[in-house]
Fold this sequence. Notes:
268 residues, disordered N terminus, alpha/beta
Amino acid sequence: MHFGSRDRHKHRHSFSIQFVASSLLCAVLSLAPTQPGQAGELDNARSDTTVLLQSSKQLRIGIVGDSMAGDLGDGMQKLLRDRDNLEVVKLAKPATGLMRDDVYNWQRALKGFVHKTKLDVIAIMIGGNDRQSIWMNGRRLSRGSKAWLAEYEHRVARFMKLLAAADAKVYWVGLPVVRSERMSRDYRRLNQIFHAQSQKHGLTYVSTWETFVDENGGYSSFGRDLNGVKRRLRKEDGMHFTNDGELRLAHAVARAIGRNLSEIKTAR
Length: 268
């Protein structure tokens, strides 16, 4: 028993030294220079997010959408983990979207989720799986065609109308740049629809595109974390996010919430 106690003490002492060393290393790395433009962006983001993190307001924040929304929800939970007054509730369904109600009916699911959870804030991130042709009334609508875009805009508007009716502040989170140039082009087009319809329905649109491009405006798996240190932000699939990427994504949404925190009603 005597020797076991001594070993445990040595282990605790060793762990303490490692922890301090790790903390010092993180502090040094956080001083690493950022690329031009990114430093100002991060500083502004930190300032706006601090408004939310230092608020005593009780908020229930819903994160809704596909697998990217799942990454966003994970990032928000990590970012706000020390804030007991800020609760994050997720409804994320991978491989779903607005074009295949037969796979997952988002209209019905959203109604039930909003009614059950009584949210103060809703952040939507969806559309990454919607690049597919569909059949309507016996007619095939090819992805990206005028008829397809008109139908997609109709579905987005219908979904936003339901969101606008919820007693919550709603943020529509745009799709990020991805590795595939073809997918990125399509995502830009979808983002244009999201942005225009958000304005029409009184939702706040949050762009994530600039957060994840490189200095040339293209895709990169790497970028600056919240401390300005270059890290891998995207997973090997060229689409989803690493832990650091999830935090950057969450930061974009937390920043938007912080900007108009005074507008959010919490009497529920």
